[in-house]
Amino acid sequence: MYAIRKNHIYKAIKIKPNKRETALWCRLDNSNKYYLISTKNLFNNFIDAFNHLKRK
Q1: What is Dmax (Cα atoms) for the chain?
Q2: pLDDT class of 2 with cuts at 50, 70, 90
Q3: Cβ neighbours of residue 38 under 8 Å, at least 6 residues apart?
Q4: 12-50: pLDDT as tens digits
Q5: Is pLDDT of 56 > 80?
Q6: Cα atoms in the Cβ-side hemisphere of radius 13 Å centred on 7
Q7: pLDDT value of residue 31
Q8: Cα 44 versus chain centre, distance
Q9: Which domain of life is it from (predicted)?
Q10: CA 9, CA 48: separation in Å to the nearest integer?
């Protein structure tokens, strides 16, 4: 799974959804921090994430 955050693409490991299930808590690129990422910024493959970032 790939996530877009601050105009960069990161490999993400999903941890759990938030209460409203509109976002997921993810760990990015083997860091020890957890980030709340919106579901519209999560992608299954790198190509989809790259194309979405290019359109922004």
Answers
A1: 30
A2: very high
A3: 22, 23
A4: 999 999 999 899 999 998 888 999 999 999 999 999 999
A5: no
A6: 3
A7: 87
A8: 9
A9: Bacteria
A10: 11
| 25 CB-side CA count, 13 A | 9
The DSSP bridge partners found for residue 16 are 25
Q: pTM, whole model, 2 decimals?
A: 0.82
Structure tokens at 20: 């409203």
Helix (H) or strand (E) holding 27: strand 23-28
**Residue holding tokens 């990015």?**
28
Helix or strand holding residue 50 (H, E): helix 46-55
